[in-house]
Amino acid sequence: MTVSRFRTILYTVIAIVALAGLADATFLTVQALTGETLSCGGSPDCFRVLGSSYAKIGRVPVAMLGAFAYFCVFTFAIFAAFGYARARTFLIPTIGAMFLATLWFLYVQAFLLHAYCRYCLLSAAMTFLLTGLLIAAPPQRRSGE
Amino acid sequence: MKRYLPFVIVVVVALATLGSGAMLYRVKHEQLQALPQTNAVSGSSGSESMHIRGNPDAPVTLEEFGDFQCPPCGSFAKFTEELLKEYDSRVRIVFRHFPLSAHEHAREASLAAEAAGLQGHFWEMYDVLYREQAAWAKAPNARELFESYAGTIGLNVDQFKKDMDGEQAKERVESDQARGQSLGINLTPTIYINGQPVDAKDKNPEGVRAEINAALAKKPQA
Questions:
Q1: Which of A34, A90, B113, B207 yields a CA-CA distance of 20 to 30 A from B163?
Q2: Domains in chain A: boundaries
Q3: Is the pTM of this model over 0.95?
Q4: pLDDT of residue B45
């Protein structure tokens, strides 16, 4: 397999993972906007997390920012898969910021709220996966197409 | 064509996300707004609790003495939603607190509902408490959950915490309970239709509908 083909496959996988993250974050955004409660299979932990003050920045649900971030990753990954080298330069800071945000939210769940929301953990797993895939993607030598 | 393909994919995904998000929002919002909130009246003067859902001038009043931690009360709450849709402006629901001592968090849940009522959101808290009953009933610190519910339904949480400990909420719950005790109630849900108790054997959808229909037949429709 050529490096170029490997890269294309990797960016496609990143796009698919981002798409799954986008679905998760969109669902959480709708939950937050409708004010509907959410319990994790009978456990109140989701409510503790999603109903906490850490789940919003001002009036904006954090999940909405997450959905936007996943959409950006999806967009950049698609363009990168089609050979737009500059897309990778946008992909790195976006996934980097998401990785740091994920660490913060895991800290909040573990040490401040003492509760875990499984939808948030799913999102965290996807961000870690995206980070790993991005690290595995070999850099492009030529820019643009 | 390949040049435009990434743009097409991104636009399609953006539209699909916005579309599905909007659809999901609409469905959930409709579910939550299914009841006529504009006809919901919460609270009255003084310590008396008076929470009415439906047309305040409806010819039939279904008065329920309920306990937020009692599972049959949760099922009955769902049924009252159906009744309000079915009978529209002809029936109103009045909720009275009757927290049973056997239920660890029932009284606290009633106080939470009253504290929400003091901010004009009794029925929103009522819905959340019944919907999440299985979760908070088993929680070691249910109050923490009630506070997060308050945040989710858009209450001022600090005020809510104060009101939960305040005299007004306590008096309202106790006033309902005293009324229930004076009527000889000892189980929940206990239902009255236009002041007449509904027999235990009729505490099912068919029985309640039959009682409502009978009450409607006796009174001219509003």
A1: A34
A2: 3-136
A3: no
A4: 39
